[in-house]
């Protein structure tokens, strides 16, 4: 269990650190207790970010309210977020690729488009 927890903490911390490098990415849980990262990219709807991640990069992420509309009302005005969930099977390379993909999407976001 300790090995699993350490891997999850390391990969989650890495992703958060990498995503924080891009000012257009807003992370809602900087210190998660579980290997789950919730974020939005300013200028893009979370559903669009999830679609781009899936279609252009082959990365699966959940988008929307995640069965917690009241929480989302408090953290993002009720618009929802993109959620990355890591597991024991997530590799370091996948974390690197995901960080690069999300940063690339953020760098190419048109701030006049979307609702986030």
Can you characterise this structure?
The protein has a four-stranded antiparallel beta sheet, with helices on one face. It has one domain (2-107): Alpha-Beta Complex (Aspartate Aminotransferase, domain 1), CATH 3.90.1150.10. Strand 1 (25-27) and strand 2 form a beta hairpin. The longest helix has 18 residues, at 2-19. Helix 2 packs across helix 4 (92-107). The chain is built from four helices and four strands. With 116 residues, it is of the alpha+beta class.
Secondary-structure map:
Blueprint: H1 2-19, E1 25-27, E2 36-41, H2 46-57, E3 62-64, H3 69-76, E4 81-85, H4 92-107
Antiparallel strand pairs: 1-2, 2-4, 3-4
Helix pairs in contact: 1-4, 2-4
Shape: globular
Number of helices: 4
Distance between the termini: 37 Å
Which class do the helix and strand fractions yield? Answer: alpha+beta
Quick check: average pLDDT?
89
Gist of the model:
This protein is an alpha+beta fold and 116 residues long. The chain contains four helices and four strands.
Question: What tags apply to this protein structure?
Answer:
116 residues; four-stranded antiparallel β-sheet; Aspartate Aminotransferase, domain 1; 4 helices; alpha+beta; globular; 4 strands
